[in-house]
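Fig. S4 source data, part A: sequence.
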Amino acid sequence: MAPRSQTALVGAVSLFLSMGQFQSGPSLPGKHVMEGELGMTTGYAGRTLAGYVAAEAGRYVELAGWTHRVRRIGGITFLLIRDRTGMAQVVFEAGGPDEVKLERLGAEDVVRVGGMVRADARAPGGAEVLGRSLDVISAAEPPPFEINLPAVKAGLDLILDHRVISLRHPTAQAVFRIKADIVAGFRRFSEAQGMVEVQTPKIVATGTEGGANLFAVDYVGRRAYLAQSPQFYKQLLVMSGFERVFEVGPVYRAEPHNTSRHLNEFTSMDWEIGFVGGAGEVMDLEEEMLSGLVASLSEIRGRELSLVGADVRARLPAGGIPRLALAAAVALLERSFGKVSPRGDLDPEGERLLCEATGGAVFVTEWPAATRPAYAAPLDRDPELTDSFDLLLGGMEVTTGGRRISDYAQLRASLAQRGLDPGAFGFYLDGFRYGTPPHAGLAIGLERLTMALLGLGNMREVTLFPRDLTRLEP
C-alpha cells in the first residue's frame, strides 16, 4: 500500500467524522464477540462487528453492514460502515483493485469489506480499517430522506411511512434499545419479587371496562373482541394459586383520540399481587422498580441516552415520588397555577402542571369510584373513593393501579351499579366464589413510560409500527 501523510489522514478523518453521527459503537459487553462465536453458520461466520474493531488491531478483519457515509478526500475514500453495534471507519487508497466499486458506492448500500486494523488514538474509536477488498452485496436506491445526519430532517408522517428506513438512524436504534432494556428491567424486578410471567388471551368475549372502546372481531362466526387489558385474567391467576403474576403484552383500545399520547395498540406491563394490604404497597414496589431501572439504564445505556439527549435519573424526584390524594392535587393546581380541573379528574394540562410542581413525578391517589372500573376497591372510610392511584411522570399518566374488590357479592353489586349485566361476566365472577385473597395490581403503558423517561413528544416515536386512527400500515 502506498505511503500517505499521517497528519493529512488524521485531518481528513476528523473532517469526515464531523459529518457523521457518532464515533464509536453502542454500550457493549466487555468480551470481544464475532459472529462465529455466536454460532453463526452463514457465509459471515468470520465477520467482525463494528463495535469491536479496535480489539482487532494488527489483524485482518471482514466487516459487513450498511454504508452510512462515503467521502472522497484527496484521492482517499473514507467509508463509515454501520451495523447493529455501531460504526467503523474504513479507508481505501486511490488506485486499488476496487476503485470502480468505490466510485459507484452510495449511502445505504449493503457491503462486505476486508482490511487490516490499525490502532491510532487519533482515529475514531481508536482504530481504523485499511481497506483491501470491497463487495457490494445489495445496492440501495436513494432513500426518501437522509439518515446519516444528526437528526432525520423529515416530518413524522413521512418517517412512519418509511419506517424501515427511519429505524436505521442511530438515534432511533438507541430509543428502541433503551425500550428493550426497560422491558428487561421490568421483567427482572418482577421475577425478583416472586412473580410468575403469564400470557393471557388477547381475543375475549367481553370488555374489561364494560364494553366501551372495543375492537370487535369475527371469531369463527361469533362476535368477540380484542382485549383492552389482561385485568380479569391476571386476577383469576392470583386466585389460581400463583399469588403473584406479571405480563408484558399488547392491549387494544378503539379510542377516537388522535393525540401524541394515544395509540390504538400499545404494550402494557402488568402486575397482580395477592395478599396485599392496599394500593400503597403496589406504589412502593413501582417506585423501587423505577429507581432501579433508571440507575441501570444510566449505567448500561449511557451512550444511547446521550444520543437521545435524555437524563433518565433526572425524571424522578430526588427525594422520592410524592403521593397526593386527587382532591389535594386539584387544590394544589388551583392554588399554584389558577388551574381549574374537571370534576373528579385531571386533564392533560393539569397532569403536566402537577408534574412540574412535584419535581417530575407524582402518585395521585383516592380517585372517585364513579371514574374507576367496577373492580376497583372502595376506601373503607369513604366508599365514594377508591384505593387506587395513577402515576404521573413527565407530564402524563403512565400507570394506573390499585386494590381490587375481592368479595363476590360486592363485585357483583358493583357491576350492576354501573349498569352492567353480571351474567355477561360469569367466567370472571365465578373465580371469586371459591376463596379469593385480597389483591392489588397495576398496568404500566410501556410506550408512555419510555416516552416520559426519554423526554420525547409523541408515543409514535417509541413505537416500531404505530397503530392509530389513521395508520394501519406499514
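Fig. S4 source data, part B ends here. The first strand starts at residue 60 and ends at 73.
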